[in-house]
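Structure first, sequence second, as always.
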């Protein structure tokens, strides 16, 4: 029995020499220390031994078992350390390398101009008032003094929805009626920003969708002088204190009198170039005193109240400020364009 134990030990230790991986080590453990290993069979034969031999054989068998177990533990630790060292070597990370820059988003040029416009008018006491983009024909036209078949409707080429009398708003002016009806008979001073839609041929200065910022002030003694003062102040804050402005008579059915405001072309300094069509001036908005019919439709008595309104295109203003030559870049989603702002 002693000899057999000697052989078991030698064979097991020799087999352990060639074990080079944790998987093979597990196979070795099953073969030499598992339930059907030769060593375990010695324990099973134990009861058939003469009584006086049992303690010595038992002692020796336990020694062999402990020896094999301690070699197993040693080998396991060595293999584990090996694997770790290898992983550290192959998966090494150079923590001194510079980091990859994180891509930062930017605000769309229209958003930047819109925020500047909100700030300027907020300082003059105008609140932002948002209204719907899908409008009724009544609000977009009729309540603004543009009845069906009125020739002025040609100015607003319209996208109609499939429901009769419902359309995508062609300007932000219908918001005037919403704001007046919500506030009458109290004075009101708001700007109404938002997207407008027109069914028209696109060009360098015309898109089928664009933002407008409408302005509306209604009160007891509002004059054309207030309108001019407000808009001249706006132009100075937006384009610089030295900017020159002029008002030209115009026509809108919902204002009387009506005007358009130009700023001096800062590309040519007023001398005339192709951006200002050789006039030296650039139109930036339409405006006027709110028409009595519109005041009444909004819930105000025109004998007691007066008001002014204006409507400007932020994309056109952005084009002037950033010298952008084509409005179609704004919604083209070309990152090369957007990343410049
Ligand atoms: C109007 O839409 C009037 N509702 C403005 C107004 C409001 C006048 C209140 C009086 C009182 P107009 O169609 O001119 O007016 O448009 C106003 C501005 O919107 C233009 O000056 C321009 O900056 C911008 N705009 C108009 N059409 C387009 C278009 N197709 N693409 C880009 N911007 C446009």
């Amino acid at each position: 029995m002693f000899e057999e134990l000697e052989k078991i030990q030698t064979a097991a230790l020799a087999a352990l020499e060639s074990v080079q991986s944790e998987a093979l080590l597990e196979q070795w453990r099953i073969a030499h220390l598992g339930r059907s290993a030769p060593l375990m069979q010695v324990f099973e034969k134990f009861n058939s031994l003469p009584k006086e031999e049992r303690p010595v054989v038992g002692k020796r068998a336990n020694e062999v078992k402990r020896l094999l177990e301690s070699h197993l533990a040693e080998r396991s630790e060595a293999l584990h350390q090996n694997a770790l060292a290898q992983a550290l070597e192959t998966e090494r990370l150079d923590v001194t390398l510079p980091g990859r820059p994180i891509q930062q988003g930017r605000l769309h040029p229209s958003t930047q101009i819109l925020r500047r416009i909100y700030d300027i008018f907020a300082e003059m006491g105008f609140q932002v008032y948002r209204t719907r983009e899908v409008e009724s024909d009544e609000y977009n036209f009729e309540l603004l003094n543009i009845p069906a078949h009125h020739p002025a409707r040609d100015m607003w080429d319209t996208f109609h929805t499939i429901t009769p009398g419902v359309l995508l708003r062609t300007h932000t002016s219908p918001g005037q009626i919403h704001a007046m009806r919500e506030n009458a008979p109290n004075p009101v001073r708001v700007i109404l920003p938002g997207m407008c839609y027109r069914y028209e041929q696109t060009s360098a200065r015309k898109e089928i969708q664009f933002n407008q910022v409408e302005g509306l002030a209604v009160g007891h003694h509002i004059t054309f002088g207030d309108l001019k003062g407000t808009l001249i102040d706006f132009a100075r804050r937006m384009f610089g204190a030295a900017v020159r402005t002029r008002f030209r008579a115009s026509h809108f059915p919902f204002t009387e009198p009506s005007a358009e405001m130009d700023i001096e072309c800062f590309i040519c300094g007023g001398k005339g170039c192709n951006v200002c069509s050789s006039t030296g001036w650039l139109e930036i908005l339409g405006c006027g005193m709110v028409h009595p019919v519109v005041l009444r439709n909004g819930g105000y008595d025109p004998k007691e109240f007066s008001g002014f309104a204006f409507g400007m295109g932020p994309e056109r203003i952005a084009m002037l400020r950033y010298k952008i030559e084509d409005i179609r870049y704004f919604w083209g989603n070309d990152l090369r364009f957007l990343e410049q702002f």
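Margin note: The beta strands are 127-128, 134-136, 166-168, 188-197, 209-219, 245-252, 255-264, 281-290, 306-312.
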